[in-house]
Amino acid sequence: GLSQYSSDPRTEWDLSAHTTRDRVLEAVRNLRYKGGNTFTGLALTHVLEQNLKPDAGARLEAEKLVILLTDGKSQDDANLAAQTLKNMGIEIFAIGVKNADEAELKQVASEPLELTVYNVLDFPLLSSLVGRLTRVLCTRIKEKSSKENAGSTGKDIPVNMGPQLSPTDLKISAVTSKSMHLTWSPPPSPPKKYRVMYYPSKGGTPKEVLLDGAVSSLRLSNLTSHTEYLVSVFPIYDTVVGDGLRGVTSTLPLSAPRSLRVSELSHNSIRLSWKAAQGASQYLVLCSAAPSGAED
Length: 296
Prior knowledge:
Its main location: secreted. InterPro entries: ECM_Assembly_Org, FN3_dom, FN3_sf, Ig-like_fold, VWF_A, vWFA_dom_sf. This is COKA1 protein. It is found in: Secreted, Extracellular space, Extracellular matrix. The chain has two domains: about 1-145, 3-Layer(aba) Sandwich (Rossmann fold); about 170-250, Sandwich (Immunoglobulin-like), CATH 2.60.40. The chain has a four-stranded antiparallel beta sheet with strand order 9-8-11-12, with no helix packed on it. A three-stranded parallel beta sheet has the order 3-4-5. Strand 1 and strand 2 form a beta hairpin. Residues about 150-160 have low confidence and may be disordered. It has six helices and 14 strands. The termini are far apart. The protein is an alpha+beta fold. It is elongated.
């Protein structure tokens, strides 16, 4: 499976999309590069929620591996998202190119780092990693499979934990030009924490808030007016993340002044008056001569 990311992750194809090597290679050749920002945390969350689910082709009994390829430092919290995946038994390999932050790669990747972290100076040099990376990946899968077959006591953590761990009924209310209020119904099994993410649908910096699992509401403030926001609420448990709730709504436009009136006209002055705009701290008044023949 493959997902590409910037400020908004995009699934290119699921695990179940291609069944032969040739079809995968053909899909790679047809891939169109997606430019933009570097929100690695959001991308890892997308992979967990969208790509590592049974309906996307993930088999519960199969080992889960994520290979992260990045050429920059993440603009959000990649470490928190990576830790969530690792807590669920998902192994992460981190490959950096050009301007990637090696310290961040080491935070995101699984242990042992000498097998899971790679960094090259430019994209053509990636080809030098293919042989070694392939051998390491295959060896890791065989090692894990051997341990399980030998009767390992480790418990399998299913990726899709179902409705028991997922909140429901997200409601967005009290929307203003700068804020909105979120409420939701908690799942039957209370989570340890909630992770709330929100960002403008047309691109912008994702922001996140961590809440105690006993809380089921949040007021988002300092938003941009007249902007559509995407909102997600994820329940976080000790070893798993439940399915997220999603919603979308737009903040209101800023209040405008109303009822403009003109009075006290003279040969070189006029007086203006209007009804105040709620929340305005100042007004900018522009005046220019009307073109010839225009209505007063």
